[in-house]
């Protein structure tokens, strides 16, 4: 018999996009809620007193009066091989890549090194409440094998792919169109849809792939209906100018990918800062998504993501940390910086919208909303306990909070890994803050 267990606490989750239904209709909140889990799935969600009436007395209930339960966070863009180079000083994208990133990524030809970093990377994600991520490997096939093997240990829903990169990078980090096609294919055959794992075809970005390689990436995407496409798009002005030089026959940056049939319902483009109307329209028409990466966009000086424009064109958007360009594994801190990026454009990012972007919105961007992203009955039991008394400042500030929107906003402004009391993946505890 599968085990049934319940968690009693305040509970909040999104059920729709606030942009579509308005803030109030976009979430459910239970001040004294109960989340019932059977095996790896959510069996019931609601008000604790009324639900408990119909449940057996023998049901194991963990009561957390100081906690707020939310779905696990979804990070729609991150590089696991860049874990140890987070906080690298002083450069913008193209020099940052050459100075710090490529030398660091060269270490991942060694599977033992890759596994060591993958283990620490996943521990860091879980400490921060992230239960699903769309993850870059390196050009080395073993980097992806190590990542998937590490993810399997915790039964995490994770998406990863081998970087395809055949030019404009050091020789020690390049593949060829044929080898990248073949190795990606082998990885898809072995790992895609194995348990909770999925594969993403991962050309790094247009400048580091030849037309031939991008065409083969498109061929792969057409050969496997439900694999992902994960790359970068229009992050930095110099990058955009370089793409125009390298691909003179493309109408714009996105068109390079479009011409190679890389836009799809499972295509996720990181950044998308400097886009024209036509690019937003094509992203919408093809059901592609953008990953908004505020800490990275500020840290490497790339620019301000225009969420309004993406919403106007009904483009799917998720939130990403983009570590190591990004400066934090914490999705709470990523929401903090997202708020500031939107402030600088004279708009307000509502806390329910931020919660949406980092949970259900991320799941929708990844086409996984039937499995993760909220606490609907039948969903996979990926959830968090946020501790309202995690720090003295959280304790005093939250004591003055008047409603759940304010509570969420405080968590996402001054909260970080310390606020994550516990993280659950498929009903199992994968991080407990206070375990010694
Ligand atoms: N564009 C191409 N590669 C990268 C990378 O590793 N990080 C970021 N932020 N942008 C990129
Ligand atoms: Zn990135």
Description of the molecule:
- The protein has 436 residues and is of the alpha/beta class.
- The chain has two domains: 4-72 and 375-432, Urease, subunit C, domain 1, CATH 2.30.40; 73-329, Metal-dependent hydrolases (TIM Barrel, Alpha-Beta Barrel).
- It is 38% helix and 24% strand.
- It has 17 helices and 16 strands.
- Strands 5, 6, 7, 8, 9, 10, 11, 12 and 13 form a nine-stranded parallel sheet that branches.
- Helix 6 (177-191) runs parallel beside helix 7 (211-223) and helix 16 (392-399) packs antiparallel against helix 17 (404-414).
- The longest helix is centred in the N-terminal third of the chain and has 17 residues, at 111-127.
- It is globular, with a radius of gyration of 21 Å.
- The two termini are 31 Å apart.
- The model has no long low-confidence stretch (mean pLDDT 98).
- The chain binds guanine and zinc ion.
- Zinc ion is lined by residues 77, 79, 232, 270, 322, 325.
- Zinc ion (ZN) is lined by residues 77, 79, 232, 270, 322, 325.
């Amino acid at each position: 018999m599968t085990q049934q267990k319940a968690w009693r606490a305040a509970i909040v989750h999104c059920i729709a996009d606030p942009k579509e239904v308005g803030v109030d209709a976009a979430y459910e909140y239970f001040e004294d809620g109960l989340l019932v889990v059977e095996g790896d799935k959510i069996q019931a969600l609601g008000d604790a007193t009324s639900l408990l009436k119909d449940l057996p007395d023998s049901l194991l209930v963990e009561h957390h009066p100081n906690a707020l339960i939310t779905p696990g966070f979804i990070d729609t863009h991150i590089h696991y091989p860049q874990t140890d180079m987070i906080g690298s000083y002083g450069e913008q994208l193209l020099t940052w890549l050459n100075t710090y990133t490529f030398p660091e990524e060269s270490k991942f030809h060694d599977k033992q090194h890759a596994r060591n970093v993958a283990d620490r990377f996943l521990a860091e994600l879980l400490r921060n409440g992230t239960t699903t991520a769309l993850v870059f490997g390196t050009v080395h096939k073993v980097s992806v094998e190590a990542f998937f093997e590490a993810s399997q240990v915790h039964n995490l829903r994770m998406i990863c792919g081998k970087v395809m990169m055949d030019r404009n990078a050091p020789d020690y980090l390049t593949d060829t169109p044929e080898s990248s096609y073949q190795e990606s294919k082998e990885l898809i055959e072995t790992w895609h849809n194995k348990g909770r794992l999925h594969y993403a075809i991962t050309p790094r970005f247009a400048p580091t792939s030849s037309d031939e390689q991008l065409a083969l990436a498109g061929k792969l995407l057409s050969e496997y209906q439900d694999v992902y496409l994960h790359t970068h798009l229009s992050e930095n002005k110099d990058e955009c100018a370089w793409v125009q030089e390298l691909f003179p026959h493309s109408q714009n940056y996105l068109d390079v990918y479009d011409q190679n049939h890389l836009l799809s319902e499972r295509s996720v483009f990181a950044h998308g800062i400097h886009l024209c109307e036509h690019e937003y329209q094509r992203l919408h028409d093809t059901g592609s998504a953008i990953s908004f990466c505020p800490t990275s966009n500020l840290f490497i000086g790339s620019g301000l993501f225009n969420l309004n424009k993406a919403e106007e064109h009904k483009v799917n958007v998720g939130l990403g940390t983009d570590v190591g360009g990004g400066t934090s594994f914490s999705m709470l801190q990523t929401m903090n910086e997202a708020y500031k990026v939107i402030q600088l454009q004279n708009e307000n990012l509502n806390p329910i919208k931020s919660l949406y972007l980092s949970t259900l919105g991320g799941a929708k961007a990844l086409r996984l909303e039937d499995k993760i992203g909220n606490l609907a009955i039948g969903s996979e039991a990926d959830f968090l306990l946020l501790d309202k008394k995690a720090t003295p400042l959280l304790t005093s500030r939250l004591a003055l909070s008047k409603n759940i929107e304010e509570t969420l906003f405080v968590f996402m402004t001054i909260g970080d890994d310390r606020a994550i009391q516990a993280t659950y993946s498929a009903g199992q505890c994968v991080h407990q803050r206070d375990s010694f």
